[in-house]
Amino acid sequence: MSRRRLVDALLVLAVVALFAVPLLLDGGTSEYGGTDAAVTEELEADGHTPWFDSLFSPAGEVESGLFALQAALGGGVLGYVLGRLRGRRSATPVSAPGAGER
C-alpha cells in the first residue's frame, strides 16, 4: 500500500470516527432535536403566539422527502450553473500574448 493510499484511508477513518465516537459514547440516552423546535418551545413558554399558521403540514416522512427533493433540485441548479460557467470559460479562445500584435 502506497503512502498516499494509507493517508487517504486514515483520513476517511478519522472522519467516520468523528461521527461515530460521540454517538457510541452517548449510548443513545440524549435526545437530539433541532433548534427550530427548541426555539418554538421557548417562545411558546414565554407566551408568544405565531403570526400565522402553516397552510400545509405534511407528515414526517413526506416532509423529509420534500426536503430531500428541494436539496436535490438546488444541487442540480447549482451544478448546471457552475457547468455552464466553466463551459463558457473553456469555449472562449485564449490568445497567446503578442499573437495579435504586428
| Poorly predicted segments | none
Secondary structure: number of strands = 0
- Order of SSEs, N→C? HHH
Radius of gyration: 25 Å
The biggest sheet amounts to: none
Q: What portion of the residues fall into strands of 2 or more residues?
A: under 5%
Basic shape: flat
What proportion of the residues is helical, as a percent range?
A: 55-70%
What's the average pLDDT?
Answer: 86
The end-to-end distance, rounded to whole angstroms, is 56 Å
Counting copies of identical and different chains, the oligomeric state is single chain
| Structural class computed from helices and strand pairing | mainly alpha
Number of continuous helical runs: 3
Outline the secondary-structure elements.
Blueprint lengths: L2 H24 L8 H11 L14 H32 L11
Short note summarizing the structure:
The model has no long low-confidence stretch (mean pLDDT 86). By secondary structure, this protein is an all-alpha fold.
Describe this structure as you would to a colleague.
The structure is a single chain. The protein has helices at residues 3-26, 35-45, 60-91. The chain is an all-alpha fold. The longest helix is centred in the last third of the chain and has 32 residues, at 60-91. The N and C termini lie far apart (56 Å). The mean pLDDT is 86.
